[in-house]
Amino acid sequence: MKVLYLDQGDFIGGAEIFSILVLNELKKKKYLTKVIVGTNSAKSEYALKISKIGLKSVKTPLPKLPPFHIVAFIQAVWKLARLIKKEKPDIVHTNTNRAHLIASTALYFSKKPKLTWMLHDFDFHPWFVKKCHKSATKIGALPAVLASIEKIIQPKKDKLLPIVNGVDLMSVKKANPLKFEKEFKLAKNSFRIAIIGRITKWKGIEIFIRAALIIIPRFSRAEFFIVGTAQPQDLSFEKKMKKICEESKYGKKIHWLGWRNDNLDIISALDILINASINPEPFGRTIIEAMALGVTVIATSHGGPRQIIKNNENGMLIPPRNPAYLAAAIEKLIDDSNLRAKLTQAGRKEVAEKYTLAKVAASLKNLWGEALK
Known about the structure:
This protein is an alpha/beta fold. The protein has helices at residues 14-28, 45-52, 70-87, 97-106, 126-132, 143-153, 169-174, 177-183, 205-215, 235-247, 263-268, 285-292, 303-308, 323-335, 337-354, 357-372, and strands at 2-6, 34-39, 56-59, 91-94, 114-119, 138-141, 160-162, 191-196, 222-227, 254-258, 272-275, 296-300, 316-318.
């Protein structure tokens, strides 16, 4: 099976992390005969990571299209059609909305190769899905995203297949909490709580900070960590959030770590991981990473987290946009070590049963196999 796997790879986001991990797993399992990864630049961070796992990457015309710029769109479609003709893949697989649009147009009148999509987010326009999905033989989607798609297109039976994110259990086993503890000189009896993700309003950073400022006066052992960076459009929001911390006498207990490449080490040193998103998350990779590492998770009750977490069984769910609810959940877990142990044990079991990379890789292989039938 030869696959042309398309993702512009302008930056490393959730979709790109999915690709890197799953393609590496597919390669290790020898599920594929040949994969060519199409990106905008062979020198991008994404392309370099793809090359590092031993896969070929080629420069592919997936430009950021200006609104209504029909000439740029036609050029991209034409160039991609030429690349497909040259490479002769069995499957063209698209991993981003931009790739879905350009590849769907390039293959609209062609029965070969087969086109498959993987949908990672809610950020698609209903019109786009209605018009373009017919080009795709099969569509994989995160479960929460799949539910939204079904409402739009009412597809034929078995066209949509649920595919989740997965955890690399070998990397989990190598996670080292001592590294993080030493770096921040954390006391052994400190209680560590963190939120990890892009610094933007919808991720619930302010909710996390407000909850922390409720908890810190009551529990002197509590230490709060914010891990992630802001994109240019969110820098003013980040500045505002840091100012809230600086103006509080408890703000020194809230640590801003910026971007890190050792998230598993950090998570392994935590007592609680928070997902406070005020809008629905498509999935929640850090949730399953924390569960795999035996860390208790509190998340807002919508989107992907609601499908991963069974409230008070393998984690805790709270209403979004409410610092008081979040603080109460944190306080409950600080006070009840038996509850934490119960939740973490169930969380580890949930990940082992549903969210391993091997299972995700098999799901993607199955998507392609079904498309070729």
